[in-house]
Amino acid sequence: MKTLRVGVVGLGLIGALHARIFNEMPDAELVAVSDADGRKAEELASKFGCRACADVKKMCDEAGLDALSICTPDQFHLENALYAAKSGLDILIEKPIAPTEAEARQIQEAVESSGVRAMVAHILHFDPRYAQLEEAIERGEIGEPIHMYFRRTNPRANPRRLPGVSIFFYIGVHDFEMLCAYMRSKPSRAYAQQVSRINADIGCEDTVICTVNFENGALGLVELCWALPDNSALGINTYAEVVGDKAAGYVNIMDQGLSLITADSVLYPDTLHWPEYNGRIQGDLKEELRHFVSATLSGTPYLTKMDNAITAVKVIEACFESIRTGLPVDIE
Ligand SMILES: NC(=O)c1ccc[n+]([C@@H]2O[C@H](COP(=O)([O-])OP(=O)(O)OC[C@H]3O[C@@H](n4cnc5c(N)ncnc54)[C@H](O)[C@@H]3O)[C@@H](O)[C@H]2O)c1
């Protein structure tokens, strides 16, 4: 059986998971890893029995890869993607595709002109709740959209781990991309407001509320907050509501279906994104990487669409402009 020879660049929270999942997957081979912090690469390489490369160029040039998984911070997605495309490798890019629409388009052009394929890792398409709602929309069961509402909240430890990273890109892009995928119409205008008090010292927003108009006349609302107290226990707390002219659909994730009540805490651990049980990482992330590997090997289309990934970044840029000016912003 043909296996996909994969390298991972950026071995932080998500990259270390990618490396482990590829290593545990029967039709993938984790061939090499790389990180700006060479010790991280050495550690993971010795754990998984693969090669540690000093940088991404060395990895693409020398490791004999078929595909590169890009898990660096957003501002390095472009340079890694351009080098991988130039090297003829298929690419998995963590969300957001890039921090600006201009960089995202450069990635798209490089991928198209070099004849490789790229998938942006928008994990909600592999979450059984969001994915089933998307399929109901595609089957026409909800009808013409009237309004959509997405919410995502996090404890404040999350931005403290990532000073200066915007809530829009770290957690919000999941919902903006899903809003665009569900809506299947072009966004035409965005209006956003923010509060930054608790996270002001690290240059991050506390909360943002954004309305987005679409060419089909429907409205979308995205509400994000990462200022919850750290003892709020609800690590992943999200909601989606889709109202069409025929019907409605809801995703409501308050707890994860598992409560662990200990002597001094109540925890709702992740049971779906990347939980570990039976000695392996399971869940949506594994399903996403499995899909990337099998679609790359078989040449079949990727489930996530690069156009939606780029549109989500474009809407977020309009939200930044709206926050700066205090006015709604037209989206070209
Ligand atoms: N799909 C998801 O649910 C999800 C979850 C978390 C993060 N992400 C995305 O993954 C990316 C990384 O996020 P994270 O939380 O893992 O970040 P992180 O800060 O935990 O890790 C980033 C890693 O990249 C390394 N690095 C930095 N610059 C580099 C460079 N130029 N070349 C090579 N290595 C470099 C750092 O040393 C670090 O090990 C971001 O784009 C983020 O949005 C996606």
Quick description:
The chain is α/β, with parallel strands linked by helices. The protein has ten helices and 17 strands.
Structure notes:
By secondary structure, the protein is α/β, with parallel strands linked by helices. The chain folds into 2 domains: 4-121, NAD(P)-binding Rossmann-like Domain (Rossmann fold, 3-Layer(aba) Sandwich), CATH 3.40.50; 125-276 and 310-330, 2-Layer Sandwich (Dihydrodipicolinate Reductase, domain 2), CATH 3.30.360.10. The chain is built from 10 helices and 17 strands. The protein has helices at 13-24, 38-48, 56-62, 77-86, 101-114, 128-138, 157-161, 167-183, 284-298, 306-325; strands at 4-9, 28-34, 51-53, 67-70, 90-94, 118-121, 145-155, 187-195, 207-214, 219-228, 237-244, 248-253, 260-261, 266-267, 276-277, 280-281, 329-330. The structure holds nicotinamide-adenine-dinucleotide. Nicotinamide-adenine-dinucleotide binds next to α1. Nicotinamide-adenine-dinucleotide is lined by residues 9-15, 35-37, 40, 71-74, 76, 94-95, 121, 123, 170.
